[in-house]
Amino acid sequence: MEGEYIKEKNIIDKNEIEKEKELIKNIIKTREELKNANKNFEFAEKDLVDYYTYQIKADQAKLSYLIKIAKIKGIELDMIGDIELTFEREEEAG
What does DSSP assign to residue 4? Predict the structure, then answer.
């Protein structure tokens, strides 16, 4: 039973800056997933057309929600692009 609440505890323990970084990472990840779903949709056949249609709709809804939360927190979309480059450089270096 204890293990069920580990994730919630970890989120609560994060400070506001860490929460904002996590939000930005999720926005970037979701945006990439949406791009990939759109590319895959172009080449989908038969039943996969439906799959990618639902995937695109789900990714769009998630992205809209995350952007809404970011705006409420005062994170500007231009900042996300700058931070994305920083994350990419950190991944390449690390």
Answer: G
How does pLDDT run across 71-85, given as a tens digit for each residue? 898 887 666 666 655
Q: Where are the domains of the chain?
A: 15-93
Q: CA 11, CA 79: separation in Å to the nearest integer?
A: 23
Question: 23 CB contacts (<8 Å, ≥6 apart)?
Answer: 66, 69, 70, 73, 75
Q: How far apart are CA 22 and CA 66, in angstroms?
A: 11
- Name 26's Cβ contacts closer than 8 Å, sequence gap at least 6: 66
pTM for this model (two decimals): 0.69
User: What is the identity of the amino acid at 4?
Assistant: E
Cβ neighbours of residue 28 under 8 Å, at least 6 residues apart?
80, 83, 84, 87
Helix (H) or strand (E) holding 81: helix 77-93
Helices (H), 14-76: 16-43, 47-72
